[in-house]
From TrEMBL:
One protein family per Pfam: p450
Cofactors demanded by this protein: heme
The protein, known as: Uu.00g059740.m01.CDS01
Keyword Heme: yes
Molecular-function GO term, any one: monooxygenase activity
Organism listed in the record: Anthostomella pinea
Keywords: Heme, Iron, Metal-binding, Monooxygenase, Oxidoreductase
Residues the record lists as binding heme: C102
InterPro entries xref list: Cyt_P450, Cyt_P450_E_grp-IV, Cyt_P450_sf, Cytochrome_P450_monoxygenase
Family: Belongs to the cytochrome P450 family.
Stored SUPFAM superfamilies: Cytochrome P450
Amino acid sequence: MHQGGTPVRISSFNTVDDSNLVDIRINRVLRRQARISPDIDLVYKQWVIPKGTAVGISAHTMHMDPGVFPEPCKFLPERWLGSYDPRMSRNFVPFSKGSRACWGKQLAWSEMFIVLGTLFRPNGSKMTAADCDESDVVPTRSCEIGLPKKDYKGLRVTLG
Ligand code: HEM
């Protein structure tokens, strides 16, 4: 990102590997590894999940289900307008769901509304992609979350 000619780079996963933040993230990822019922079998509808079995869901798989989100890779924000398929809400799990869901969800929504509302406000700055393209943001690798290609540069824009 550039503002007033000064480049401002949003760190990519590759560039923050010497930061304490990464330790915190790694701890979190390790803790987030699949949930296991150690003592009893779990029963869900007609299925029995034997004790000791790791259980988890993939938000990416939920969000990319073409039966729920037709053309899932397309940016179609209007898919959320009007009376949309209720399965979309069921499948929307960026903050996970249930007792271990994200505590910071409301703060995260507030931050996203403020930042995106500022960047995309009426008569706001014109943004131009700077030395990056779609391949720098499209997930192609799995690292608990989806990551773009190995040498991705992240999203960089010039505000004019
Ligand atoms: C867009 C931003 C965010 C996303 C997508 C996100 C996503 C998630 C997800 C998926 C989990 C569940 C992890 C699991 O399954 O164990 C989680 C947990 C958590 N998140 Fe977030 N999060 C975001 C921002 C935040 C913020 C801003 C905070 C705090 C200021 C926060 C605090 C936490 C905490 C404390 C947990 C652990 C909850 C628990 O284990 O009981 N998150 N987050």
